[in-house]
Design goal:
The chain is of the alpha+beta class. The protein has helices at 60-71, 95-110, 117-128, 134-139, 176-181, 189-208, 214-217, 224-227, 234-243, 266-279; strands at residues 2-11, 20-35, 39-45, 48-51, 78-85, 142-148, 151-157, 164-170, 248-251, 258-262, 284-289, 297-298. It has 10 helices and 12 strands. Strands 1, 2, 3, 4, 5, 6, 7 and 12 form an 8-stranded mixed beta sheet that branches. A 4-stranded antiparallel beta sheet has the order 9-10-8-11. Helix 9 (234-243) runs antiparallel to helix 10 (266-279). Bound molecules: L-homoserine (HSE).
Length: 299
């Protein structure tokens, strides 16, 4: 028996579309036991035990395990899986990245540790389709993920764990696939330059732990304006979070969550964000968390 504990992630952070990702202290834990045959799964959503008689073809962890065993031409073991789920689904917080990584890492253990880190990352990228969540989920911290010849390279920076991160989670799912469909296929040169400058600035802010320019570094012209129309009140939430003292505010991944970095007043910022969304008829809750610099743990 072994457990794999994987952090949630927030990708993009405004200006770093498709290349920035940060691990945060919200976790999914996957407990694997080898059995004689077949697949069974118990899912525990934030401590509410449920037996889900889930079709094995719908469980992303198990479909990933099958892909890995297929790739290596090995026979699947029987698996009993217990999932403790705290990362909300389809909210831009890396829940599917956690399932894909769990499936690959578990397979690697069953197969006797035959994969290197780069094999794990590249296979996860192939299955998940985006690397910006995969890398921080595995390694922790803030990561710049680059695709070179369709392979992942990355640079990790440890993030100040005193920074508070407010995560606003609306009662609304957004699928990454849908949230990408509304993006333009081309961007203006001036918008590209706008983002390159701010993304570089954001990396420097994290490196130096100097957050003075965070509000500028989080600005974006490549994706958020288009996606804003999926979330009623999005622009107002951003404005109000800054007004109440947030340092940097962004759509989390492809949404629907919104993150706000704070040095203080984090509860107030969270409450105001919830109130703002509610005035647009959208219910939400907020969580206060911190950066996770450790990444995935195998216990
Ligand atoms: N960067 C992706 C997007 C989501 O914004 O569509 C995370 O992989």
């Amino acid at each position: 028996m072994f457990k794999i504990k994987i952090p949630a992630t927030t990708a993009n952070l405004g200006s770093g579309f498709d290349c920035f990702g940060l691990a945060i202290k919200i976790y999914n834990t996957f407990k694997f036991e080898e059995t004689a045959d077949g697949f069974e799964c118990v899912m525990n959503f934030r401590n509410k035990k449920e037996y889900i008689n889930i079709n094995e073809n719908e469980n992303l962890v198990y479909t990933t395990v099958k892909k890995v065993f297929d790739q290596y031409g090995k026979r699947l073991p029987g698996i009993h899986l217990e999932e403790d789920i705290s990362i909300p689904f389809s909210r831009g917080l890396g829940s599917s990245a956690s399932a894909v990584l769990a499936g690959i890492l578990a397979s690697n253990i069953f197969l006797g540790d035959i994969m290197k880190e780069e094999d794990i990352l590249n296979l996860a990228f192939k299955i998940e389709g985006h690397g910006d969540n995969i890398v921080p989920a595995l390694k922790g911290g803030f990561n710049i993920t680059v695709l070179e010849d369709n392979r992942i390279i990355y640079k990790k920076l440890e993030v100040d764990e005193n920074l508070k991160i407010v995560v606003l989670v609306p009662k609304m799912e957004i699928r990454t696939k849908d949230s990408r469909k509304i993006l333009p296929s081309e961007v203006k040169m001036e918008d590209a330059v706008f983002n390159i400058a701010r993304a570089s600035l954001l990396t420097a802010c994290f490196t130096t732990k100097d957050y003075k320019y965070f509000p500028i570094a989080f600005q974006d012209k490549l994706h958020q304006n288009y996606r804003a129309k999926l979330i009623p009140g999005f622009d107002k939430v951003i404005i109000n979070a800054y007004k109440n003292g947030a340092l940097g505010v962004a759509l989390s991944g492809s949404g629907s969550s919104i993150i706000a970095f704070c040095e203080k007043n984090e509860k107030y910022v969270g409450e105001e964000m919830v109130k703002t969304l509610s005035s647009y008829g959208l219910e939400s809750e907020y969580l206060i968390t911190f950066a996770d610099n450790q990444g995935t743990l195998i216990i």
